[in-house]
Specification:
Choline transporter. The protein is built from 24 helices and twelve strands. The chain is mainly alpha-helical. The longest helix is centred in the N-terminal third of the chain and has 40 residues. The protein is globular, with a radius of gyration of 34 Å.
Amino acid sequence: MRRPRKHAKKGTPQKYDPTFKGPIYNRGCTDVICCVALFIAIVGYVAVGIIAWTHGDPRKVIYPTDSRGQFCGQKGTPNENKPFLFYFNILKCASPLVLLEFQCPTTQICVEKCPSRYLTYLQASDNSKDLDYYKNFCVPDFDQSKARKSKTEVLRDGDCPADLTPSKPLARRCLPAVETHKGIITVGNETTFEDGWGQKRNVSELVEGAKKANVVLEARQLAMRVFEDYTVSWYWILIGLVIAMALSLIFIILLRFLAGIMIWIMIVMVILVLGYGIFHCYMEYARLRGEAGSDVSIVDLGFQTDFRVYLHLRQTWLAFMIILCVLELIIILLLIFLRKRILIAIALIKEASRAVGYVMTSLLYPLFTFFLLCLCIAYWASTAVFLSTSNEAVYKVFNNTAPCSAVGQTCNPETFQTSNVTKLCPDARCQFAFYGGETGYHRALLGLQIYNVFMFFWLANFALALGQVTLAGAFASYYWAINKPDDLPAFPLFSSFGRALRYHTGSLAFGSLLLAIVQVIRVILEYLDQRLKAAENRFAKFLMTCLKCCFWCLEKFLKFLNRNAYIMIAIYGTNFCTSAKNAFFLLMRNIIRVAVLDKVTDFLFLLGKLLVVGSVGILAFFFFTHRIKIVQDTAPPLNYYWIPILTVIIGSYLIAHGFFSVYGMCVDTLFLCFCEDLERNDGSPERPYFMSPELRDILLKGNAEAGKSEPQEE
């Protein structure tokens, strides 16, 4: 028989009592070793950032580089007014060397404008006006009269290109202006061109060279267009995110006072939306009856890049209608069979609403977590960019004529003319190849990048864990207060935040470390999977798929275990392993409630998130596609209208998830406290329940209906 517990007066710290399972104020530091390890890792991470910022140069990503390793268009340099990179012989870009070293084996210079017409050096040298125009595409400071070189010597020494072709800038590179007329490829309205050596060449060779030159630029071109869309639409994206924040906040406030009504409104809206979808699919299916080509099957049509083609098939709408009917039927059956559990979930959400109402500052805490995550992302991204651009310019020997044994060797452009290579290979050139290095620092760059990714995951998970423990501690103090809200601390959220940092930094570091290790392994597996896609080894692919599946499941399990372990840490102040063990076995002893009640609340919160995201997403779609007549001229012109729409949708989901995560953490904390309360107390005067009367009435009633042998209420 347990001895009764004497309740402490308001404001008096409660000493540890075996019969009392509530927040413990006399705590000690937990998992100190992990706390020290985190501190050392952060110091090392700062050192990596300093090293990267010392050696890195982000200009290598932004600006193209000529054969001398100079940036095109960089302010404060001789090439400030020359933003475009020009290739002397674009045909050389069709060489396999481009795929190996990402560099064309031809001279490259920075120019003000790309050439706009066909012209050879032999033709230009006979006309002073054409020669002046041609000099814009020769090496800097070239002057034939001063050099006293013949035409062939100029071409032999690579001072000027043999010919010019009409070009257009693409990702700041001058590439042939390819056009198609009735299936015929032309460049500057010509199908052939003179290569400057007296030979006629087909423009298809230019196209092939341009394709190889563009192999590394396609991703950058896409990124630049996306960046342009962001520069003209960021203001409207922010407005969309503010609207999402306002809708989430209004929804949370309404949930605070009208929890039951709001939940049933969400359920009814989902049923109505699915019902309208079924009706719309049937109407489209009936409308297409008898139209030419509408009876073609999807299999016969095959894959089409224009997905609008499928909307003209009756089979498409029939498939949509069947899928929506199945979803509608499943949801209705779940509502019928889980109606009592939904009532219990609503009661739990109502209790969570009361807890949030007494700890209103908890609604703003996701902003602090978001700020910490932004810091982690910004530091990781900047460090990654500086690390990737901290290589040095590497110059290699190139030769276009006779075979040369020195081709591919590294060289120094300052001493190249006096080296033995020029004697062995008179036509060889020392040209910029790529950014790299052979020092110990450059060999360690891969390891530093992996460490950068690992620390990003560790710190990001730590920030999330800190938020979970802080919210859990605040809501647990509400649950374990006998006289609500009189027994609550003056500032429950700040008190919980202080306890988490002061006593449990090591436990948070331990849990986030485990999760970070699994996430890094998953990233490595994804990288290896991309490398193995071209392989024909079926066993390796099968093994890789199994490993990816196993680590995905492990990550999900760790997130579930960590979340409940953090709640136990917030309540009892035990270390991570003890808290994880206690939380796991407590949940296993209440597996039916976990599988039904807890997941029902998650489903209800998901409906709330989708309601916010869907509303803002539809508004963004109509705005950025110029379908709102009132503001039709206000929407900015875009390369890809789906870029800002997708950004608004993802951002809205993150914002809604941030607000609803407060309720989710509150429900999980109250649910775990409820399970612990049932096991430790029986509702008698000696051991009263800590749950509120409203929660006790419906949860114990639902517990009895589930077949659990719970003590009867007085």
